Amino acid sequence: MKKKYDVYGIGNALVDIVTEVDDAFLVKYKVEKGLMTLVEEDRQHELVEAINLSSSNMKCGGSAANSIIAVSQFGGKSFYSCKVANDDMGKFYLSDLKENGVDTNLTDETSPNGITGKCLVMTTPDANRTMNTFLGITSTFSTEQIDQVALKDANYLYIEGYLVTSEQGRKAMKYAKELAEENGVKVALTFSDPSMVKYFKAEMEEVIGTSVDMLFCNEEEAMLFTDTSSLIEAREALKNVARRFAITLGENGATIYDGDTFIDIESYKVDAIDTNGAGDMFAGAFLFGITHGHSLAEAGKIASLASSKVVSQFGPRLEWHQTKEIMNHLFEN
Q: How far is CA 52 from CA 37, 195, 244, 245, 246, in A?
């Protein structure tokens, strides 16, 4: 029986404020370059006040949200469970999700009082991205945000690794995974960030349990999680925790394990100006591919080309016409 949704995702809801800064700005305001740092609201407000907001790009975001929107942009049907407050940013978030064709548990009527989470994404001229995140109300994401009906009616559950940092988040991850497995829904998970597997490895192992159907990570995350010092060792070790997985390798493309063999995915050479959202786009485009009749190798090509397009522009999303161009380029014959 055909499912209503290709992918049902759970993760943080953060309004991304994407802006350009120089290294001098990061030094002046004592911001650690290249890292995702959790900050308090007053600290984030100080930084937002210091940048030129008129030239900034604001979109609904969060790691899994970016991936779920990518599924929709490529023509898939997706659902996103998250948590925002009933403030202006929360209303913006809901509106932006809807505009991108994503169904959600959010409604204007049920959003609680509080402050919607925000992520200040600062991109430097060398294409490096630095994130300062105030989680706000998304830090209390829990099992209450899980839409059982929508999850059961999906081909894949996609879990954001960032949720592992809170006890409520971990419970929601495990609850959603168990519900998916009980109802024949495949489970995909992304490690999200090296810090998640470095500081929350035991908790991540607890969430994964015996295995997941699909795992997304980069090379650093793969080695950190498996306590190995090379890609070859890491990918062998990952066979014990995921039936299939994709390891992104930056400008060197990606390697995919299909449950039997490894597939090398070539990168597309571009001039990178903003690496924000590259991994999220890879996962979203890949999930679209494997839920629309494409092999893992084909899905890898879609994901690699989509990621190359994202890093050559500002922001974590593509335009609708770009996704069509990608599919036409790869499969026009």
A: 21, 29, 43, 40, 37
The string of DSSP codes covering 249-264 is -GGG-EEEE-SSSEEE
The Cα 7–Cα 131 span in angstroms is 26
Q: Exposure string (b/e) for 192-206, b if CB count within 10 Å is 16 or more?
A: bbbbbbeebeebbee
Distance, CA of 116 to CA of 86 (rounded, Å): 8
If DSSP codes are grouped into helix, strand and coil, which group holds residue 314?
A: coil
* Model pLDDT for residues 35-71, shown as the tens digit of each residue: 888 899 999 989 988 886 665 678 899 999 999 999 9
Contact 245, 218 (CB under 8 A): no
Q: Is the pTM of this model over 0.85?
A: yes
CB 112 within 8 A of CB 17: no
Residue 317's alpha-carbon distances to 180, 238, 263, in angstroms, are 28, 29, 26
**Beta-bridge mates of residue 10:** 81, 159
Residue 268 CA to residue 246 CA, distance in Å, equals: 17
> Quick check: 16 and 60 in contact, CB under 8 A?
yes
Is CATH 3.30.70.3420 the classification given to domain 5-13+62-112+138-331? no
- How does pLDDT run across 150-177, given as a tens digit for each residue? 999 999 999 999 999 999 999 999 999 9
Q: For residue 243, with 0-12 CB atoms within 10 Å meaning exposed, 13-18 middle and 19 or more buried, which class applies?
A: middle
- As a whole number of angstroms, the distance between CA 166 and CA 164 comes to 6
The amino acid that residue 286 corresponds to is F
